[in-house]
Each structure stands twice: as structure tokens, then as C-alpha cells.
Amino acid sequence: MPEETKGPDSVLPQPEGAKAPAETAFTGTPPAAAGAESKPSEAAKPPVAAKSAVPAAAKPPAAPAKPTGPVPEPWESEFVAQMRQQYGSGIEEALRYLGQTYLTVDQSILPEILRRMRDDEGFDYCVDITAVHYPKREQQFDMVYVLYSFPKNERTRVKTRIKDGEHVPSAVAIWETANWLEREVFDMFGIVFDGHPGLKRILLPDEWKGHPLRKDYDILLQDREWVQANLGIVSGQ
């Protein structure tokens, strides 16, 4: 009688020379079919970064409004009140700008005003005399007198307007420093000062034509005739 099989652990005898079947460990996942490509699992794939939305270009902030600059203010003082009372409309303006004061007066009273500024108001030094050219204006020139008082340590200006070709009374008799200052204005602007002791050019040769600080004088213009006659060269401008 054949021997009784003893459960699953029993092993049937194999024929002589036969190989024992290889044991396959079962892992719960069936082996891949032969020849199939191995694909990484979804869990093994690196995460794909979400595309971030590109923000629209931000508009630059609007430029701030340009601040308004300082403006002249009325010059109110006892001195100005007295001047207005005495000369009326001859005092055209009395203004204060950035802490500095100036009077604009009619040219007919200019010599009297200048002398009073020295004798009564103590402006014993004439710092400068100059002009400003406005070619499109009927009264093309502003005459400007810059005055200083040593006793008061104070500065002020007196201005008047004249037409092209009008003469101005000299202030040399009031301040000696006006001598060379008026010569410079004559040289650069062509304004004549009546009563000046020796009115002639001070920067340019006497024979020079034109007045370089007038706005109708071309910045590249020079007296080619004088340059060639006196220097023996042709102007390069």
C-alpha cells in the first residue's frame, strides 16, 4: 500500500537527474510580462510645478505735480508808504522776493530816487549797475541798480524801464563806483549815460561793432572786420 501523503510539506520524489523547480517568492505584485518596458510608478514621478501667473507690468506712478516756486510779495513798510505818498504813480512797484526788496520807478524820477536812497535811506554803496534786454517789449531794457547800506547791513534794488535808444542820467555824481559800471553797460548793451565823465567801452575795443549782451546779438557773431584788420586773421566762427 502506498505511503500516505503527509500534508503540503510532503515532497514527491523526483526522477533521477531532474532539477528541482525554483521557488518564486510571492510579493503580492505579479511579475511583469516578459519583454514589457518598466515604467516608473506615478508616485515616483517628480511633482510638476504649477505655472505661476505672470503679473501684468505695473504702471509707473504718476509724476507728482511740479511745486510752485516763490512769487514776489508786496513790500509794505513806512519807507514805501512815504515814497508812494510823495511820488504817486512814479513808484510803479514795491515788492519783496526771497527776502530781497526792490522798487520799480518811472525813469523821469530815477535820479531823484537814487539820490534819496543814498542821502535819506543810508544806501551809501552802489554794488552794481546792469541791464536786462527784452527785445519784444516796447520798453526793451530794465536798468537795475543794486544798492547796499553799510549802516543797516541791508541790500535793495532800484529798477526802471527804458526804450531802445533812450539815454539814462549818469549816477557817477552820486556814487563814484558807478563810473566803470556804467561803462560796462554801455559796452555790453549800448545804453548811453548822460553826464558820464568818460563814457567809452571797457571790455571790447573802441572800434568794435555791436553789443554782445543784447539778445539780438548772435552768440557766434563777432566783428570779423576788426579781427582781420587788427589781428591779421580770418574769424573761424
List keywords for this structure.
4 helices, 17% helix, 6-stranded mixed beta sheet, two-stranded parallel sheet, Beta Polymerase, domain 2, 237 residues
Q: Please tell me how large the radius of gyration is.
A: 51 Å
Instruction: Bin the strand percentage.
Output: 15-25%
**What is the terminal separation in angstroms?**
140 Å
| Helix-strand topology string | EHEEHEEEEHEH
| CATH class assignment of one domain | Alpha Beta
Largest sheet: 6 strands, mixed
Q: How do you describe this structure in short?
A:
The protein is of the alpha/beta class. Helix content is 17%, strand content 19%. The chain has helices at residues 78-87, 110-119, 178-189, 224-231; strands spanning 73-74, 91-97, 100-105, 125-133, 141-149, 154-162, 168-169, 193-194.
Question: How would you explain this protein's 3D organization?
Answer:
- The protein is α/β, with parallel strands linked by helices.
- 14% of the residues are buried.
- It has helices spanning 78-87, 110-119, 178-189, 224-231, and strands at residues 73-74, 91-97, 100-105, 125-133, 141-149, 154-162, 168-169, 193-194.
- Helices cover 17% and strands 19% of the residues.
- Among the domains are: 73-203, 2-Layer Sandwich (Beta Polymerase, domain 2); 208-237, no CATH class.
- The termini are far apart.
- The chain has four helices and eight strands, in the order βαββαββββαβα.
- A six-stranded mixed β-sheet has the order 1-2-3-6-5-4. A two-stranded parallel ribbon has the order 7-8.
Helices and strands in order:
Elements: E1 73-74, H1 78-87, E2 91-97, E3 100-105, H2 110-119, E4 125-133, E5 141-149, E6 154-162, E7 168-169, H3 178-189, E8 193-194, H4 224-231
Parallel strand pairs: 3-6, 7-8
Antiparallel strand pairs: 1-2, 2-3, 4-5, 5-6
